[in-house]
Amino acid sequence: MSGLETAIRQALERSERANSETRARIYQSARNALEAGLRKQDVHDPDVIAQQRHRLEGVIHAIELEERASLKAAASVPPPVQIETRSAPVPSAELDHDIHMPSERHVDRADSPVADGGLAGLRPERRDGPRAAETAPVAEPAAGKRGKAAKAAKADAAAAKPRRRKRGSFLSFVMVITTLVAAVVMGAWWVETSGLLKTAAERDTSVANPPSTVQSEDFDGAAGLKTLGAQAGFSGDWVEVFTPADASNVKAGSRAAADPVSDERGQRLRITSATADADGNVSIEIPVSVLEQISGKTSTVALSVQADTGKQTQFSVECDFSSLGDCGRHRFTVNDEKNDMLFQVTFDRSLAPSSPGHILINSDVTGAGNSVSVYAVRVLPGQ
After folding, report:
1. CB distance 24 to 196 below 8 Å
2. Closest CA to 225 of 333, 154, 330, 366
């Protein structure tokens, strides 16, 4: 989020950041920039979109906390005392003498604070005050000269003030538009250059391998199967229900073998099925505590698997989750590179299971006896 965060902070520096509405507009512009970038790159994956929105909201929240803390610190410092000398309609005699009193050769000192209503002190603030003083007739009374000068000063101030407001409003408008455009451009640039929208194959610079596939002809659509693709890693929310050290929780069918192996490829469970039917299945136990977490939810199951060197095999996965039911039969194709195969299961029933469940793996649905190595089985419970 470094690109959008930089754009937000630059926009705040160029705007009236003390105004909460101005900050809100800048934050919304950042959100619009992110959405525009995602649409431009044709991103429709809800998980990716939700993740990016969540990260942006985190950045906005952190910046807003900083802005509020800064405003609170500034408010605790008392502002300097200033004496307003222009807005009072009838200043006192002492204040009038402090505001550039006229010279004695034009105004009688005895008349200056009272005869003109205290307006003589405003004459130096007129744009053409000195010129008017030089061209006024000498014979004109001092009170008359000061009265005309005060009226002219009021007229100039009334005309100049709206022009200053109009110019300031225009500059603020230009600054807001510039900030919004910069935010949109920065957002689009960040989405384009961050590699967020690239697929795993585009980011992988190694030699291309045959893609992992899921065969659809034997799916149970009602079971809610979704192929989510390989993951770069697993967070702490994933529950690890099997590792090669859990061989005691594995049972092989009459025509299947499950052998723990540890070599240069790592520790794993090598499954070999001599037949594609139930006798070739290997059962991996799923604890009751895990079944309770996925009851009544949509959860994700991940298998880290690999075929033998130089080979490719199609293996199947089935579920027997006690009182929750099953998850249909799913078939995957895996080669000799380690991959994570993921699918989702949905259980509408919230009945608490009373006994462990099982995941059933057949290493070769063609019955040719190919093997598949299982490194781990993980479950991500739904929310």
Report:
1. no
2. 330
Q: pLDDT tens digit string along 130-179?
A: 444 344 444 444 445 555 655 665 655 555 555 555 567 788 888 899 99
Architecture of domain 213-380: Sandwich (2.60)
Place of tokens 């070599």: 263
Burial, 228: exposed, middle or buried (Cβ in 10 Å; 0-12, 13-18, 19+)? Answer: middle
> Do the strands 256-263 and 266-273 form a parallel or antiparallel pair, or are they unpaired?
antiparallel
What span, in angstroms and rounded, lies between the C-alpha atoms of 189 and 364?
Answer: 47
* Token code pair at residue 381: 């419970």
284 Ramachandran zone, left/alpha/beta (phi>0; psi -120 to 50): beta
DSSP labels for 290-351? HHHHHTTSEEEEEEEEEEPTT--EEEEEEEE-GGG-EEEEEEEEE-SS-EEEEEEEE----P
Q: Report the candidate in 114, 126, 134, 119 with the shortest Cα–Cα distance to residue 152.
A: 126
Instruction: Give the Cα separation of 52 and 58 in Å (integer).
Output: 10
Q: Are 113 and 97 in contact (CB under 8 A)?
A: yes
Tell me the pLDDT tens digit for each residue of 178-223.
998 889 888 888 877 776 676 665 665 554 444 433 443 444 433 3
CATH 2.60.120.260 range(s) for the chain read: 213-380
Amino acid at position 153, single letter: A
CB count within 10 Å of CB 185 equals 14
Question: Helix, strand, or coil here: 204?
Answer: coil
Dist. CA 234–CA 7, nearest whole Å: 32
Mean pLDDT of 75-84: 64
The answer to whether residues 351 and 295 touch, using CB atoms and an 8 Å cutoff, is yes
Q: Is the pTM higher than 0.85?
A: no
Q: Quick one: DSSP state of residue 223?
A: G
Give how far the C-alpha of residue 36 lies from the chain's centroid of Cα atoms, to the nearest Å: 13
Structure tokens of 82? Answer: 């200033």
